[in-house]
Amino acid sequence: MVDTFHNNHDTGYKELFSYPEFVQQLIEGFAPGEIAKLMDFSTLKSHSGNYITPLFEEKIEDVVWSVEVTWEGVTQRVFLYILLEFQSSVDRTMPIRLLHYAACFYSELLKQKIITPGQGLPPVFPVVLYNGSERWTAPLDIFEMITPEPPDFLQIYQPHLRYYLVDEGRYTDQQLGLVQTPLSGVFSVENAGESWETLQRAVDRIVAIIKTDPNKERIDKVITRWIKRHLQRLEAEVNLEQLNSLVEDKDMLAENLENLVQKERQQGRQEGRQEAELRALESKRDTVRHLLAFGVLTDEQIAEATGVTIDDIAKLRREDKH
Prior knowledge:
This protein is about 50% helix and about 15% strand. The chain is of the alpha/beta class.
């Protein structure tokens, strides 16, 4: 299941994961290999409908996917449950939420008569996709939240539900570079943060990936819509109305981003000069304090020697007395 949790804005990920290619890219590129190799991605099936009853008054939107998996000669459908978690901070109640969502999901399957109790429940592979700035530290299994650890005879009665975490921010540029897919390009753009220079390089990379994709035109449109949402969230000074294709409008976007890069560098140089001036001023004030401590020179002589004004010297003298 692809389940989207939005933090007061449209991240665009819901649209990305409405396409089977992006679901496949997530599983193949970032999930355990032994799981991905069992899946026949040509059988990916999207299921519409609201399967989750929100907990804690959360706004939940979901898209359900299932895929055929074969092991030990048996083929069956596995439901992919991918929670998009885009809060700014880590939610340590995630194991409780996942347990709640899984229970609601199974209840809805039974209620809608997609399955019957006699058939048993289908397997679910829960994945949490997280893009916050803090690294994820929440437990990965609800059993880990039960403290102190119960004795052996009680352990079998405790709930167990483990999810697989894809923490976008923990992947380095080098690691993402090994996964040449549009989705890894999206992760690179996300990880660029608000650095326009890093963002410019990430956009160049994702354009190069799109150009080699067999479904170039469709992927270009999908990623372009996502990029426009992303730039809007960053409040980038880019003419988004003219951005209709990352591939076709690459030069226009590059020029806009280059302008932002130059502003960023200029601001950095200005901040650097201001910091240097503050350090120099503080150094002069330290010198004034030392000269005042000796009590030999007049304020006028100290001002002439250090370049600090008479008023500032008088202020430092008052501060030292207090």
